[in-house]
């Protein structure tokens, strides 16, 4: 490991980075004028709490803006070095981190996927909302099976969420990450909840997976439309090759 990487991954540096990220996001939230759609989203979703808030990779920086102050929340964060300061930032924002991620053919135990699933189930059972990306690393905007499995096992609904700002930095990364800038306009869009029956068949699980994928695309398209912009991540889906079974990768 290089000297720079050792320094940036030291506990003191990551604590400082996490605090700075949280402070910056607080500034973005305070200085943007946000509109929420639907306007009665909290009235409709509130009685369903705790829910599973679904987002796309790359949209994780501002997703907590959609959380009400009274909502207890936990978020799935990878075990990577970068994930550590993200977890610290979330702590400063009042969100508990559950460490782990999907494996996609790799060692699930090493990635922490099994323990993370257990942690998310415990969180939901304890009344905490769970926030997680619907797609898995390196396959942008293709919903994986993890989030629908969590919904099936927990009995809690999945709510697609998009939070975007008019002034932002769009990174040229695999996930088309976006980071909001201060002093602009913002949009928070919540989709219709997707329910997964505990006894769902494989076909029903696939239908739910496709519904989450479709609805996440829809809420992002609508959120960007509300601020007069186009979704910078939409093209990545169109370019994704088709896999066996009809899904893209």
UniProtKB/TrEMBL annotation:
Q: Which residues form the DUF374 domain?
A: 68-138
Keywords, ordered alphabetically: Acyltransferase, Transferase
Report the coiled-coil segments.
Answer: none
UniProt-listed Pfam families? DUF374
Name the segments for region: Disordered: 230-249
Which InterPro entries would you find in this protein's record?
DUF374
**GO molecular function: any one?**
acyltransferase activity
Q: Which domain of life is it from?
A: Bacteria
What protein name applies here? Lysophospholipid acyltransferase family protein
Its source organism is: Microvirga puerhi
